[in-house]
Amino acid sequence: MSGRIGAAFDRFRARTPDTALFGRVVVINGLVFTLGTLVLALSPASVSSRVRLTEVPVLVIGLTIILAANALLLRSSLAPIDELIASMRRVDPLRGSTRLRESANGDWSRVIDTFNAMVERLEAERITASSSALAAQENERQRIARELHDEIGQSLTVALLRLRRTADRAPAELHDDLHEVQETVRACLDEVRGIARRLRPDVLEDLGLPSALSALCNEFAATAGLTITREIDSELGRVDADIELVCYRVAQECLTNIARHAHAGSVRLTLHCDDGTLLLRVRDNGTGTITREGAGIRGMRERALLVDAALTIQAHPGRGTDVRLAIPLTLRRPPP
């Protein structure tokens, strides 16, 4: 009986795709009660004015059938709301949210369309906001790097030259002290240059991503004591500047996190192009624990969104962390 009711309701719902949710519930209940009344009227069963004990099971069975049919039809009609709630819980503009399938009619179809449009607006606004913020950040990095190089770097260079001339004219007993001061100033100058280079890597603009990543690996190997194995496709052509910058910043953030938190001894960095997709992978043999995603990881996800990339981070406790960045691209080959 419930199967016949369900089939009848499906035919009715297909003919009335614009029925409102309230009207749909009313129609379901009305259809169930109408069919129950017809069954009661046409069946040989009867109920006395004073219900007899032998008639109670018939009433209970009839009521149970009506309630079960009503519940099944309502469950079928309201099923899309469960998928909508689950999708709402999964929405994350930083990771890219899945869209709901348009498998319903009437108001549910409009609700699903509206929800999908809302998610698209959220992701578009997040990308726009992230793009503006990261562009402003890169401009500020460039300005600070230029001031460090042109102002503080030049001042330290002048101070170092004057110390050298002073040491040449100073008494012999002051030579050691002046030499120590010279080494301190020279170390400060090297540190300022290193900070400026990390803020705005000139090698990325001048020589491209493979050379910039090689220089980055050499720097972290020297300063953090990491053993870094590089597998970088040297034949990789120049790609879009935004893609190169995103790839470089993600690799830089990975190496920074490894040096600070992973307690790793070795790192493997690979970069190659496969079927029009630029693949960057950074693996370490550290602790492999990520208690929460901090500003660094969120920054990597925001940068990945800017170039429509897929960023996956897999932490294996005791066996290290594996970060993968897949960027769809079209290589720009240099002119012959």
Describe this structure in words.
- It is found in: Membrane.
- One of its GO terms (molecular function) is kinase activity.
- With about 325 residues, the chain is of the alpha+beta class.
- The protein has three domains: about 1-80, no CATH class; about 100-200; about 200-335, Heat Shock Protein 90 (2-Layer Sandwich), CATH 3.30.565.
- Helix content is about 65%, strand content about 10%.
- It contains ten helices and five strands; from the N terminus they run ααααααααβαββαββ.
- The protein has a five-stranded mixed sheet, with helices on one face.
- The radius of gyration is 34 Å and the shape is elongated.
- The N and C termini lie far apart (about 75 Å).
- The model is unreliable at about 10-20 and about 330-335 (pLDDT under 50).
Radius of gyration: 34 Å
Mind telling me which CATH architecture of the largest domain this is? 2-Layer Sandwich
The percentage helix is 55-70%
Number of strands: 5
Could you give a short account of the major beta sheet?
Answer: 5 strands, mixed
Unreliable stretches: 12-19, 331-336
Question: How many separate domains?
Answer: 3
The first-level CATH class of the largest domain is given as Alpha Beta
Give me the number of helical elements: 10
Compressed to H and E, one letter per element, the order equals: HHHHHHHHEHEEHEE
Structural class, from secondary structure content? Answer: alpha+beta
Beta-strand proportion: 5-15%
Enzyme class: transferase
Main location: membrane
EC number: 2.7.13.3
InterPro entries: HAMP_dom, HATPase_C_sf, HATPase_dom, Sensor_HK_TwoCompSys, Sig_transdc_His_kin_sub3_dim/P
